[in-house]
Each structure stands twice: as structure tokens, then as C-alpha cells.
């Protein structure tokens, strides 16, 4: 049952004066529950508990953490229909999407459970002593990854499960051994509370310390600001807009002790369409891209907001096809009146710019809070000259840029901001003639896709979900896949440390049977 | 021959109006060469060349990069006595130290050459396609580390070779495939120019692109500021003071596109001495620590500036012994009049604080620019109450903190700023009774040492040279060892990319024969 309260560790609490409700965009009404925003006292309590919890949680074994993570997955499933109904009532998204996203969330939690149970992820590295080395003896040095400390997680509006309360950031941080404080997203505070209740249950069941997880409600920016400024918070995970992500990054970098902020932010996900591909599969592409642009009402961070081609008749044909295909798609609901409000405003502002031409826009009547998809075109030079064309319009909207030639195409790509993804649509033989274009694209993105669509982010170790700024605040990390744990850990060395006092990961006898780099060789062998 | 000019890529250049000389602290005179500070035009040229060079250098094979790195090592050795003499004339350090540091520098370069020649460091990760997966097919996704872009390196005053022009930051960045622009340290500009000439020679010999390396002279902060603000610079490496490191971090985080700064900064390297250890080996310890405190005139970032013990007669005895031992050591020269000036000022300021007692200070006459070592004591409560006691005094100076009891010892440790190292001096049986003390120490440091001294940083894969702020700006990385390459690379994914267009590291046939994680299994096998 949703109560509207915060979780300050294991304790429910609602001491703050500020309250708010979530909104059902399909019905265009507020939902019933009154949520209590965490006040400063509650925020400080949550951080204090997290700091205390870290003392034991940082030394909790991989096996125990795996039990905790799996229990969270089990308890989320236990929530059953209430979770799905709450999700739908707070997002306007359909049930199938809710269930799919729950599946992804469960999969992520279990992947991290596998990772920490197996244990080799700590990158144990051992260099044994050489006592008789000249001119100086060599010490025994052993290194492994250790958790960085309490992590604050800001959930995304558009993924209330997979990138929110028990989403990738939280799962990775808990797997690392970092207590988590979630700044709950106000648009899905009910979904957040239900998932938080599952995490708290799981923590109690598996004997985790009080404070290993807290869930704080918030209607505005205050709770987040206080959390990021708190000296005992050691890292921040965020998914959302560039404006909000940058604000948190700035706050964190102005602290006396700056802390890492991994913010996954905006992206227009450029798609480069080469001429031969248009000739051979232009029609299919138009259908595929009409679907990708409107998928989830365009509310994906990997939504293709920019299609780049070289001026030609086939490109004209493709634009005509896409124009027809995109208005065949039934409009769908956006997450919140604020989000559709921003969509309409941003789209209008852009469409009012000189040298941008609307070529297709859904113009029949739609339900309230439903988004009208649109596509527009611009020349390569117009695009190069107007920075407004480079900005993300969050929703089902794309610009097709008609470049003069290959050189201009390369130039357009080089001038793009950093992106999560870049896509190349090409005939197999064609791509190798466009090395400079491909190379320019690679330098602007975190992931490059061949003859596909950017929407859809596979959860697997080889995935990079991140990229050069402003796709993320630090391109050296990924937000998806088990390697996203690296955001929340630091390497730590023991020099000449007694074997009995070393963590199991580094003991001579390798009791956890993990892979370790011993004197430059990867092995599971014991040391003599 | 030292000319005083900058290297703008392969070109020597001295267009700026500002000139300066280096200083010989042993002779207390300026050295002859007039150095030309790089002007804005030269700075922009260097960055522009680096950006151009990146286009080819980022795709240069590991074998080629290894040749380049080994050629740098060879060319540095070729410099012969001129390098050693210049080093000594610019630092006041003895020849043995110069040769030792050259050896370390060569070893680092060759270690990175080995690493990139072998090639597995890119963490190649492959998840193969599952076309018939339900409900959606799974794409083929392949990931590897790629270089981040041009890196600016700020050398350290106290390690003109190993942490400067061709030091660890530069070697790691070049190994990664990142062009490097060095902001040469004004105190050893001649050493820097010689090493730069070796790098340029090596680059030409091995066919590296013009702009892969530049060396810019500077007398003040302007050159560094312009470099860090330049939009085409993608990362910064720094070794030096907290003040300077933080200033660069702030500059970088205020950019439109913030970039990572890895700054290795100050540290007082706390040494915790447990009671039984004092009983059994107090005398030996006093000798050992007198040497460690004064090693290199205390000009090491791992110098033990803080000894922490629990009040007792044996601690009193140790303090007396250390007091006697430390003044037996012959004072030695500091790097520069400015550095000895800071040392004397910082020491005086501290010694004038209430509740700090000087227990030993070398007070015989010394040569000009030679430092007088000193030790002082303070109670645990005095230390807790006065933040001035927590600051590093760069030079041969340490404070011994006499804590009331174990609880206060733990409290003192918990209140410390982040540190590069922490040391525990204990009898083997004793340590296990001090879990809380050890745990507190671990949370404040990057490396923990048992019954040793913090001075001496072994170059090996298990080394962590870094730590919580302000030991470094980002505790998730190390400045020493081959893993320091991770500061300058980012993960990059290819989705459904044609095999022929993939980099060799990710091709089906594994032509480089590197270790790769294929469908969660580490293997060198080819893919079918």
C-alpha cells in the first residue's frame, strides 16, 4: 500500500511540511496519495544512517550482497499488479511497457547478483614481494576495488523502474557495497515508494544494516540539492535533462570535497543515412524510423532526433516516405502535462526558426496529453549556423539534415555535441568509402550502430550507455551493464599486509576462487 | 642542447614576449638558458596540432605505439650526462637520485610499451547476437577502450623525470592513443626541454603524426589556464599542490564541456603506531622514520607528515628517540628558494600555533636553500580542534599526535582529509585488536602499508597512487602503474558492426590474439 511517506532507512517518516500528488496523464487527474517531501532533518538522518551502514555494508561478502539483490528482485515481483497499476497511473504508459520495464529491472538486479557472487569483478591484482631485489627490496602489494561510500541516486522520469528507485544506478551501487539514498522522482513517487518497500523488505530479510537504503520524496529541487551538498555523500547517479544534470554536477564540483557525478543526460542520437542504402531500402527505412521516432512517445534518451543525409532525389523520396509513415502512427500519451508542455514549446520554438521546414506533422485531434509527432528538414549550412537545431526536443520529433556533400556531412557530425549513440545506415560495401564520416561519428558518441535503430539499450557487459558530454558528465563510464559498477568503486592497495588480515579476495589461499592477476598473469591459483 | 624554445609539435618556437630562467639551488644562482614562455598563438597551435594528430594517433596499433614508447626511453638514455647534469642543476638533488628517477621513467615507458604491445588492456568485450531471441532479437555488441582525446600534462616540481615531461601521466596518455601537451614546470624547464627533444625524436623515428606531443614553457599560471580552458583539450593530468590542482579542477569543471582532471595533490600520509610495536621495536622505528621523514629533503608526496600513537611511556620514549635520530641526519638542499621559503613559512606558522610543541629541530648552520628538519607533538584533542595541524608542510617535518586512547585515535583518523597512504606499525598479533582503527584508516587512504614506510611508490599493476580528495581529485583512478591508463580512455560500443570495419581488437578472428570477454567468458578464442 502506498502511504506517501519517506523511508529513512527502515523507518517510515513524514515530518516535512511540503506535500504533493502524482498525476495520471491518461485520465488528466491527480492521483489520490498525498506524498510528504523529506525535510532537512529527514535528509540528514538518511545520510547519517547510510554512513553508519557503510561501515558494515562495505565489508559484506559478495554472497550476502547477491542474496540482497536477488531478494529485491523477488520482492519487486511480489508487489504484483499494484506495481503495474501504479506505474501506469503515474506515467500514462501501457501495461506491456510497465511489465517489460519490470523485467529489465529484475534482470539488472540478478545480473549484479551474479557478478558479485562470482566475485572476480573486484579486479584483484597481486604483485608478490622480492625481498632480495637490488638496490631495494620489493614489497608485496595487493589491490582490489572497494566501494566509494554512500551514493545518491536521482531516478529518471521516463523509466520509473529500470532507471529509478531500484534501477541500474541503485543496483550497481548496492552491488559495489555502497548504501543508496534515492531522491524519488516526483512524477512516479508511488511507484518509487512501492519499489522502496521491496528494497527495505529485502534488506531486512537478508540482514543488511539499517540505512543501506533510503527513499526520499521530493516535489522540487531542494531535497536533491541538500543531498548532493552533504559532506558524507560520496557519489551521485542521475538520469535526466542536461539542465538538471549539469546543475548537480556544478553543485558537486563546488563542494569542499568534490565528488563524482555520473549524469546521463540529453542526446539527439544522430543517424547517418548513406546514399546507396537509401536506394536499396529507403521504403523499409522510412517505416522503421517512423516507429523508432515515435516509440514510447519519443520519450527515450536514445530516440533518433537527427537524421543526416546527402542531398539527392533518393533522400527526397525518403523524406516523403517518412512523412507519410510517421503520421500513420497513432499518437500516444506523454508522461506528464509538464512534459508534453515542454515538448510543444520546444517544438514550436524550433519550428519558428528560419530555415527549418516542417514536412510532416500529425494534425488530427488527439486526447489531452497525447503528443503530435512531427518531422522537419534543414540544410546542412542552416544546421551548422543555428545551434538551436542541435538541441534535443524530448518527444516524437526529428530533424532531417540535407547536407550538400560528404564534406559537409562530416562537418555537421564534427560540430555535434556529445551523444549516447550514432547510427550508420549503409550498404555493406558502401560504408568503407566513408571512413572520415564514420571516424567523426565515433568521436562524438558512446555507441555506434550499423543498420539499426538507436532505441533499445541491451543490458549486457559490452553495452556502453554514456558518451562525451553532454550525453554524460564523464564519458569514461557506462550507465548500463555490469561494468556500470565501476562508477561507484575505487582501487585500494595493501602493502605487506598480513595474510590473515587481508580481505578474502586477496588472501594467499584465494578462498573465493576468483580470477586474479598475480604477477601479471590472470589465474585462480593459490599463492604459496 | 637546451635552447629555451617550446616544441609546438615537431617545430621549435619562441614567439612569446615573456622569458624566464631556472635556478640552481645548490649554487644559489640562476642557470644560463633563457626560456621563452609559450604565447596564446603557440598554445592554440599546439592544441590544433594535437587535435589533428588524434585523428591518426587514436587508430595507431599497439605495436606502433610500443615502438614509440620504447624509442622515447632509448632517446632519453641517449641524452646521457647532459640530462643528469641539467636535472641536478635545476633541482639541487644529487646525481644518484637523478639516475634513479631516470631509471624509473624508462621503466614506466617500457611497461606501457609492453602493455599496449600485448593489447589485452583494451578490455575487449563481445556479446554475440541472438537473432531468434523472444520477444526481440539480440544484437551483436562489442566494446573496447578508446582514447579520450588530447591530454594536457602538468609536471611535478619534485619529480622532474618520473612525474613530468615523459613521466607516468604522459606515458599513460601516449599508450592510450592520446596526444599530449606538456605544460613544462618552470623549475626544471631545461630538463623538460631535453626530455621533450627525446620524445620528438622518437615520434619522428617511429612515424608518429606531428602534434602527438608538444612541450610548452611557462613561468606562471597563464599557459596552464589557457590549455585547460581550450575546448579541444579533453583531459588533464596534474601532480602538485592542492591549491594549484584544485584551481585546475575548478577551471575544467566550469567549461561548457567539463573534462576530467586527475590531480594528485597533497597528503600527510598518517602513520599509526600501536603500543606493542613501540615496545618491541621502538628504537629501530625511530631510526627508520628519521630517515623516511628526511628522505629527499621531505619532498615526497608520500612523506610521513603525521605519526599517530596512544599516550604512554613507550610513546614518550619513541618521541625522544626520534628527536635524537632526526637531528643526526645531515640537512639537504630543497628544490628552489620558493620551496624552502614555503617550507620555512608553513613550519613557522604551525609552530606558532597553541598546543603544538617542537620537540626537535636541527639548529646548526646550514647551507643556503638547505632545510632544517623538525618534529613537533600535539595532543589528540588539540589535533582534533585545530584544522591547521591537518595540513601538509612540504618538507622534512612531522607532527606526532599523542591520543588519549584508542577511541580518540580512531576519531583523529576519521577526521583526516583524504590521503595517498596510511601506515600501520604493529606487532602481528596486535593488529587484529584494532579493527576499527584500521577500518577508519582504510576509508581515508588509497594505499595502506603494514610495518613499513610510505615513502617509495613501487611501479606495478597492484599499486594505487591516489586516494580520497584532496589526495587526488578522483579516488577512482591511480597515477602509478599500468592501470593509470584508465584515466585517459573511455569505453566504446559497436552494435552489429561489420566484421571487416571493426578494429582488430574486436574482429571475429582475433588477429591480435588478445584476451577478450566473449559472452561472459575470458578467452583468446576466435569467433565462428
UniProtKB/TrEMBL annotation, chains A, B:
Q: Where is the Aldehyde dehydrogenase domain?
A: 18-460
> According to the UniProt entry, where is the signal peptide?
none
Keywords, ordered alphabetically: Oxidoreductase
Short name of one Pfam family: Aldedh
Superkingdom, according to UniProt? Answer: Bacteria
Report the InterPro entries cross-referenced here. Ald_DH/histidinol_DH (IPR016161), Ald_DH_C (IPR016163), Ald_DH_N (IPR016162), Aldehyde_DH_dom (IPR015590), Aldehyde_DH_Superfamily (IPR050740), ALDH_KGSADH (IPR044151)
- Please give the CDD domains that the UniProt record associates with this protein: ALDH_KGSADH
Protein name, UniProt field: Aldehyde dehydrogenase (NADP(+))
Native organism taxonomy: Bacteria, Pseudomonadati, Bacteroidota, Flavobacteriia, Flavobacteriales
Amino acid at each position: 500500500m502506498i502511504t506517501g511517506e519517506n523511508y529513512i532507512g527502515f523507518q517510515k517518516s513524514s515530518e516535512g511540511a511540503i506535500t504533493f500528488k502524482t498525476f495520471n496523464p491518461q485520465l488528466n487527474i491527480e492521483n489520490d496519495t498525498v506524498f510528504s517531501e523529506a525535510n532537512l532533518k529527514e535528509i540528514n538522518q538518511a545520510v547519517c544512517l547510510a554512513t553508519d551502514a557503510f561501515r558494515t555494508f562495505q565489508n559484506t561478502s559478495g554472497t550476502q550482497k547477491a542474496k540482497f539483490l536477488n531478494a529485491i528482485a523477488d520482492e519487486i515481483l511480489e508487489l504484483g499488479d499494484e506495481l503495474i497499476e501504479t506505474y501506469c497511473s503515474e506515467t500514462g504508459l501501457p501495461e506491456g511497457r510497465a511489465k517489460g520495464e519490470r523485467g529489465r529491472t529484475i534482470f539488472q538486479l540478478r545480473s549484479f547478483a551474479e557478478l558479485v557472487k562470482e566475485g572476480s569483478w573486484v579486479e584483484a591484482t597481486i604483485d608478490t614481494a622480492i625481498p632480495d631485489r637490488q638496490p631495494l627490496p620489493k614489497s608485496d602489494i595487493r589491490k582490489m576495488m572497494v566501494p566509494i561510500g554512500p551514493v545518491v541516486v536521482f531516478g529518471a522520469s521516463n523509466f520509473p523502474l529500470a532507471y529509478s528507485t531500484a534501477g541500474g544506478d541503485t543496483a550497481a551501487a548496492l552491488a559495489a557495497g555502497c548504501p543508496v539514498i534515492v531522491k524519488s522522482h516526483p512524477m512516479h513517487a508511488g511507484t518509487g515508494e512501492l519499489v522502496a518497500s521491496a528494497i527495505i523488505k529485502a534488506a531486512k530479510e537478508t540482514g543488511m544494516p539499517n540505512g543501506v537504503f533510503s527513499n526520499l520524496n521530493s516535489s522540487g529541487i531542494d531535497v536533491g540539492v541538500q543531498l548532493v551538498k552533504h559532506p558524507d555523500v560520496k557519489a551521485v547517479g542521475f538520469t535526466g535533462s542536461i539542465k538538471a544534470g549539469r546543475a548537480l554536477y556544478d553543485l558537486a564540483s563546488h563542494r569542499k570535497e568534490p565528488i563524482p557525478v555520473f549524469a546521463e543526460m540529453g542526446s539527439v542520437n544522430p543517424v547517418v543515412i548513406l546514399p546507396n542504402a537509401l536506394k536499396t531500402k529507403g521504403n523499409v527505412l522510412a517505416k522503421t524510423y517512423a516507429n523508432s521516432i515515435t516509440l514510447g512517445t519519443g520519450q527515450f534518451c536514445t530516440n533518433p532526433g537527427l537524421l543526416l543525409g546527402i542531398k539527392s532525389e533518393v533522400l527526397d523520396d525518403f523524406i516523403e516516405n517518412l512523412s507519410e509513415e510517421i503520421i500513420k502512427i497513432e499518437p500516444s500519451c506523454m508522461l506528464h502535462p509538464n512534459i508534453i508542455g515542454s515538448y510543444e514549446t520546444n517544438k514550436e520554438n524550433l519550428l519558428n526558426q528560419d530555415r527549418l521546414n516542417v514536412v510532416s506533422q500529425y494534425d488530427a485531434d488527439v486526447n489531452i496529453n497525447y503528443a503530435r509527432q512531427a518531422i522537419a528538414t534543414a540544410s546542412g549550412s542552416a544546421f551548422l549556423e543555428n545551434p538551436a537545431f542541435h538541441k534535443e526536443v524530448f518527444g516524437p520529433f526529428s530533424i532531417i539534415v540535407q547536407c550538400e556533400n560528404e564534406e559537409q556531412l562530416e562537418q555537421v557530425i564534427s560540430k555535434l555535441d556529445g551523444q549516447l549513440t550514432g547510427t550508420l545506415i549503409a550498404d555493406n560495401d558502401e560504408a568503407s568509402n566513408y571512413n572520415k564520416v564514420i571516424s567523426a561519428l565515433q568521436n562524438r558518441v558512446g555507441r555506434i550502430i550499423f543498420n539499426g535503430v538507436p532505441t533499445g539499450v541491451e543490458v549486457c557487459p559490452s553495452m556502453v550507455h554514456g558518451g562525451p558530454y553532454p550525453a554524460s558528465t564523464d564519458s569514461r563510464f557506462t550507465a548500463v551493464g555490469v561494468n556500470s559498477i565501476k562508477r561507484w568503486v575505487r582501487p585500494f592497495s595493501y602493502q605487506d599486509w598480513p595474510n590473515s588480515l587481508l580481505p578474502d579476495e586477496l588472501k594467499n589461499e584465494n578462498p573465493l576462487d576468483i580470477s586474479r592477476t598475480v604477477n601479471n598473469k590472470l589465474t585462480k591459483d593459490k599463492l604459496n
